[in-house]
Amino acid sequence: MHAIARIRFDGGMLMLPSRTPYEIELLLENLDWYTARHEAVQLEIDNHRWRVAHGSSDTVEECARCHRARATLTFVNGSRVPLCVACARVAVGSRFAEWPRPEPARRAAY
Hints:
Blueprint: E1 4-9, E2 12-17, H1 21-38, E3 40-45, E4 48-54, E5 73-76, E6 80-83, H2 85-93
Antiparallel strand pairs: 1-2, 1-3, 3-4, 4-5, 5-6
């Protein structure tokens, strides 16, 4: 398990440790800030990439995992998964272990 998460955005990249609960909390705070500023960023963690978008106040979308809270971040990697803060913390902390892996890209045979 890699300890470094990369947040890529227009004009730069932020690298943060992501092993302890405190580090995961800092990662989520930075994801929230950068997605609010840039609309969407790319999160790279453990050799997986996710496009992360900020939940807007215009659209009230519920969390796809708990269905109780309002989604604040949306993770996209083959499927679109809006999550509340608590469920995003669980997902990042488990390295998205409970999520199905996206299908590999199909290559055309020539």
